[in-house]
Specification:
This protein is about 30% helix and about 20% strand. The protein has helices at about 1-5, 20-30, 50-55, 70-85, 90-100, and strands at about 15, 35-40, 100-105, 115, 125-135, 140, 145-150. A hairpin with a 4-residue loop joins strand 5 and strand 6.
């Protein structure tokens, strides 16, 4: 939609939900008026966890490492639940373990993922906005994380 509007001369700001391709698309379009918000830090921020993921998936997939962030977070939650459950881990014991799991996403998200017995999404969610910064000639964050409570 943004590209179509740009082709007909529209110059306004545009906000979209960003996912795995966000940093690629912002860099490709190089449009300072295009903003993308999402739940994961972009790998251009070069956090230690980004390097860890990049190194571990090298040669394992044809996709860029930053496409793995969402699955990596899910795996972190599952790993925490399984560690808490112990062995053997029948489904009722795993459900109990997951009902109180708290996972430090190490910067992939704006805060921890915390589950309760009645909320297997999370207590809070975080969003961060990015855009192409013409002055830096690079994708850059626009501010920090915004926290939203899940009710």
């Amino acid at each position: 939609m943004f590209e179509a509007l740009s082709r007909i001369g529209w110059q306004g700001g545009y906000l979209l939900y960003g996912h795995q391709q966000t940093q690629d698309e912002l860099a490709r379009l190089k449009a300072g008026n295009l903003y993308a918000f999402g739940g994961n830090t972009l790998f251009m921020e070069n956090l230690p966890i980004h390097g860890e993921i990049t190194n571990l998936v090298r040669g394992q997939t044809t996709h860029p490492a930053h496409y793995m962030a969402e699955g990596w977070v899910s795996a972190m939650v599952l790993e925490a639940g399984l560690k808490k459950c112990g062995w053997p881990c029948p489904k009722d014991k795993l459900a109990t373990a997951l009902a109180s799991v708290s996972v430090d996403t190490r910067g992939l998200r704006g805060g921890p993922i915390e589950w309760t017995a009645d909320n297997h999404y999370r207590k809070s969610t975080y969003y961060k906005v990015y855009r192409w910064d013409p002055a830096k000639n690079a994708v850059a964050p626009v501010g920090g994380w915004t926290r939203l409570e899940i009710k």
